[in-house]
Design brief:
The protein is α+β, with helices and mostly antiparallel strands and 333 residues long. Helix content is 64%, strand content 11%. The chain contains eleven helices and five strands.
Length: 333
């Protein structure tokens, strides 16, 4: 079973996404403000009325104001979905307002609808993105129709740059609607693929953790010492039996060089180990913790990775000190 994000983790992730969205919006609005100031200074060259510039300043102030509101809601409102719904609604309304203002200059702010559609998908999924695309299509279609029939309340103050016939207006609306839905579908597809990939990674991570737990349980359950080292002779595994036999704690040996801990074993770990069958029994004397010598029965085998390349060595050993002493006593008798 894949390890799914719990509710708290999902909520925290969405909060981070929302905060990033708010900051990104503030940066974008700041760039828009800079453009507005530039147009205000050069408005005679661009044939832009002062009313249009004033509307731009008002829109910028509205975006800044609502960004502050979003941050407060993010901090105090537990329901994150309400925050994202509010942001979507305000953005679509303000963008529609901007699109209505820019009919007399060669700037198409309808592109901002696409940004709203894109950021809605990670929060609401593919279906949510399609709903937002539908709302954007309705708003844009109504606005284009009102422009064509000269029914905008501020149209007389702003004026028109284009004189389009009904066919051109309808084509323009259809192109925008199709682009909105295609974008929502593609963004939804990308998000779904990302979720599937993440789910597969979580499943593989879960399987790996279970295998790792099983491996460690087996290693810790055997009564012989088990130690693994990498190709640089750093100790990576040291089981409980190895601790009992040597009298040395895991903390003292893990990620330490064999040269420093067990220099007596190094001669049995040459680079040709992988090309030789594991030896059933090597005997080696090491310094014991209490000052005496420990006689170990040692077996060294290559540790291989998935590609069958050697990634280290595995050493299995047991204490032969008492057995050797008993053998000597028997020989003396």
């Amino acid at each position: 079973m894949p390890v799914l994000y719990n509710e708290a983790a999902i909520k925290e992730k969405n909060k981070r996404r929302l905060f990033f969205l708010i900051v990104s919006r503030v940066i974008l609005v700041t760039l828009f403000l800079g453009t507005t100031v530039f147009l205000d200074i050069r408005k005679q060259e661009f044939s832009i009325s002062q009313i249009t510039i004033s509307f731009f300043y008002f829109s910028t102030a509205a975006f800044y104001f609502f960004s502050v509101v979003y941050i407060f809601l993010l901090k105090f409102l537990k329901n994150i979905q309400s925050n994202i719904y509010l942001q979507l609604t305000v953005d679509i309304v303000l963008i529609t307002f901007l699109v209505g203002l820019t009919d007399n200059i060669q700037i198409d702010y309808s592109l901002f609808y696409t940004l709203v559609i894109i950021y809605s998908v990670p929060f609401l999924g593919r279906s949510g993105g399609l709903i937002v695309a539908s709302v954007a299509s309705i708003f844009y279609g109504l606005l284009a129709g009102l422009k064509y029939f000269d029914l905008l309340p501020f149209a007389s103050s702003i004026g028109h740059y284009y004189n389009l016939n009904a066919y051109d207006v309808l084509t323009n609306i259809l192109v925008h609607i199709v682009s909105f839905y295609v974008l929502a579908f593609l963004a939804g597809f990308a998000v779904e693929q990302e979720k599937k990939t993440r789910s597969l990674l979580e499943e593989k991570e879960s399987d790996f953790k279970q295998l790792d737990l099983l491996f460690r349980s087996i290693i810790e359950s055997v009564y012989t010492g088990v130690m693994t080292v990498d190709l640089n002779n750093f100790i990576k595994t040291f089981n409980n039996a190895a601790e009992e036999i040597t009298g040395i704690s895991k903390l003292e040996v893990l990620d330490k060089k064999m040269d420093d801990i067990f220099p007596e074993i190094l001669p049995f770990m040459n680079t040709d180990t992988i090309n030789k069958p594991p030896k059933n029994r090597n005997e080696v004397l090491i310094d014991g913790l209490k000052g005496g010598k420990l006689k170990l029965g040692l077996s060294v085998s290559p540790l291989k990775g998935r590609s069958e390349n050697q990634i280290g060595n595995i050493l299995i050993f047991q204490d032969l000190t008492q057995i050797t002493e008993m053998e000597k006593k028997l020989e003396m008798n």
